[in-house]
Design brief:
The protein has about 675 residues and is of the alpha+beta class. It contains 12 helices and 32 strands.
Length: about 675
């Protein structure tokens, strides 16, 4: 039996040696080029189809990123899906992916244009982007290769190039931490912070060697197949954005070796990337660049086949049977933390609209180093509507459970309309204390429950016309309240998928148990929106909302007010209505429905068409057609980092005149 086993082993070894004769080593070299580098994926696919076994991969910048992932086993099909599916705006920033934020954090991110940490040990910078989200993605993709190692031990030996700006020399990575090498090779000057290693400060390898064919030869490559997305000649009119400027800077600096390295290549594939820059990460651009990479490689198909046959390389079966085709599951360490920060954070937002004109909002959050962990936060809004808020939050060990005590001062100046006619201008101060023992803040939903005290101080009332308006009496109110929010929408302002739901119940009293000697006022407020994608750019968005006031006759402080585009923008109980620009005082029971059609015109451009109908009455048992309101509105918006910029034009059966609204900036 032992002799038979030994004989079988000898035969298997002999067959293996026969099946794998000595052959030339094949290297693939991938140039830098930012977004243009996604074309490398298509080129790799064609090289695989041509039957080349790939023994070495070398790359610079985006070529290093694509090459490193290929070298550790990811298939070209997976890489194709990876670059198409990324939210590049988030990935190439330090903003936390909304998928990992609580609802309150998402709201803050869409309120403030600037959010910055203060004090503490801030990392050294040198670029606009630290690369926090890139690092998280790299750690997830390279989860089996996080230790320091020799890159020759990877499934396919790999090397990449960076530039030490202290000595102005090229640094070639053959070993070390793979994600650190990837990050250093693609650190575009001024955009990404440099990678610091000992005395070296490392930036994009394209500054010294954007097409490292010489590195592949030094690693023992007998055949070099290169792919370049570096512009061979740039016209002045093509340098029209930051990405193009940085790409040209890298291209100029790397030309000292570029032509020599082309001569070291057995086959050089140049991808025509005219019209695109290092920052062309839109979906349409990526589709085109992938197509151009395929076309450029297939134009050289005959030369690829001739090169393989000339060196007597047998065709191999691709894709590789052991290639990885799925994203590794993220661990807790590979997700951004959403816990309350341990360093102070300051925030600033600003907006302009045709109603209020200008407004700014400032915020600050900082922790207290106390026995019982606490966080303090402050908010200041300045404009026609002013607001100051201070809150203290207990930081418990239970995820998302943060009991809160807050004081808010609002100073408001609002025009109130009745039946479409401006009847009053009301100025008042509202003092509010909220004690919220249950303050549960999680990724998709929040739940709040607590006790609230309000005091309304009216200091000005101008009568523009006769109208039925509740008496303005300075008074205080005590409320028990509970609310729940759910938000799975994929975008804060312009969602195309997901749903948003909000429900609030408040029992309002003047003395903890009654309202001026009678039963308290029950306040029920519900709204729900669903987003239905119709096609790649179209979405249908039905919305239902209602506010019912049961029991005691409500004072003006809690009466139904309808108008504008957003919930609670001017006053807390405000509900929006398409085409209605002013604040309309309605009956105590209000129900409305809205249907919106949204079209994603191009990149950050959106068109929205809305139709709405609302019914309001004092008696749910009696319906009257006079209390039915219909509104229409058309809007255009351009989404920016400071918030939406746009205009809307509307009309309602209540106002009976067109209404134009212009907005610049986040909504607050």
């Amino acid at each position: 039996m032992k002799r038979l086993t030994t004989l079988l082993l000898i035969l298997l070894t002999a067959c293996s040696l026969t099946a794998q004769p000595d052959r030339p080593k094949v290297a693939v070299v991938l140039s830098g080029g930012g977004a243009k580098g996604v074309a490398h994926i298509s080129a790799l696919k064609v090289i695989e189809e041509a039957g080349f076994p790939i023994d070495i991969v070398c790359g610079t910048s985006m070529g290093a990123l694509i090459g490193s992932l290929y070298s550790i086993g990811y298939s070209t099909d997976f890489l194709d899906s990876l670059v198409r599916s990324q939210d590049w705006a988030t990935l190439l920033s330090d903003r936390t992916d909304p998928a990992y934020l609580t609802l309150r954090q998402r709201e803050e991110q869409n309120t403030y244009a600037v959010i910055r940490g203060l004090g503490g040990s801030q990392p050294q910078r040198g670029g606009l982007i630290r690369g926090r989200n890139l690092d998280l993605l790299f750690r997830r993709l390279c989860s089996d290769y996080l230790d320091s190692l020799s890159f020759d031990s990877l499934p396919i030996p790999f090397a990449c190039v960076a530039t030490d700006i202290v000595t102005n020399r090229e640094v070639v990575f053959h070993s070390g931490h793979l994600i650190q090498a990837m990050r250093a090779s693609m650190a575009i000057p001024g955009v990404f912070t440099p990678v610091r290693m000992g005395q070296m400060i490392l930036l994009d390898g394209g500054l010294r060697n954007n097409y490292p064919a010489d590195v592949a030869r030094a690693m023992g490559a007998d055949i070099v197949i290169g792919v370049s997305v570096q512009d061979l000649m740039t016209r002045p009119e093509d340098i029209n954005d930051v990405g193009a400027v940085m790409g040209q800077l890298i291209s100029i600096n790397s030309r000292n070796k570029f032509n020599d390295n082309i001569k070291l290549s057995d086959l050089f594939i140049y991808v025509d990337v005219s019209g695109y820059s290092a920052a062309s990460f839109s979906s349409a651009s990526i589709d085109t660049l992938l197509r151009r990479g395929d076309e450029a490689s297939r134009r050289l198909w005959d030369r690829l086949i001739a090169l393989r046959r000339h060196h007597q390389i047998d065709s191999v079966a691709y894709p590789r049977p052991d290639a990885m085709n799925a994203m590794p599951v993220a661990t807790d360490e590979q997700r951004p933390s959403t816990t309350i920060t341990r360093v102070p954070i300051a925030s600033a937002g600003f907006r302009f609209d045709s109603e209020e004109m200008g407004a700014i909002q400032l915020g600050i959050k900082f922790p207290l180093k106390t026995t019982l962990p606490m966080g303090l936060a402050g908010t200041l809004r300045l404009g026609r509507r002013s607001m100051a808020r201070a809150e203290a939050t207990m930081l418990t060990s239970r995820p998302g459970f943060n009991p809160t005590l807050a004081y808010t001062l609002r100073v408001n100046d609002i025009d109130i309309y009745t039946a479409g006619t401006r009847t009053h201008n009301v100025r008042y101060r509202q003092h509010t204390v909220d004690l919220t023992p249950l303050d549960l803040r999680l990724h998709r939903y929040t739940i709040h429950a607590g006790l609230r005290w309000d005091y309304f101080n009216y200091y000005g009332q101008l009568l523009a016309a006769s109208g039925d308006i509740p008496d303005l009496v300075n008074d205080h109110y005590i409320s028990y309240h509970a609310s729940a929010d759910l938000n799975t929408e994929n975008d804060w302002y312009f969602p195309s998928r997901g749903t948003r739901f909000h429900a609030t119940y408040a029992y309002r009293t003047t003395n903890f148990y009654s309202f001026d000697g009678t039963a308290g006022l029950s306040d029920i407020n519900v709204h729900w929106r669903l987003n239905l994608p119709l096609a790649s750019r179209w979405a249908l968005q039905p919305m239902l909302y209602s506010r019912l006031l049961l029991g005691h006759k409500p004072p003006l402080a809690y009466s139904n007010l309808m108008g504008g585009n957003y919930f609670g923008l001017v006053v807390e109980q405000q509900v929006p209505f398409a085409g209605l620009g002013h604040i309309e005082l309605t009956e105590r029971h209000l129900a409305a429905a809205q249907l919106q059609l949204q079209y994603h015109l191009h990149k950050n451009h959106y068109i929205q068409l809305r139709a709405a109908a609302a019914y309001h009455t004092d008696d749910l048992a009696q319906l009257a057609a006079d209390n039915l309101v219909v509104g229409l509105q058309a809007a255009y918006h351009y989404n920016t980092i400071i918030g939406p910029i746009g205009a809307s034009l509307g009309y309602t059966t209540l106002s009976r005149e067109p209404y134009l609204f212009i907005n610049i900036g986040h909504i607050f």
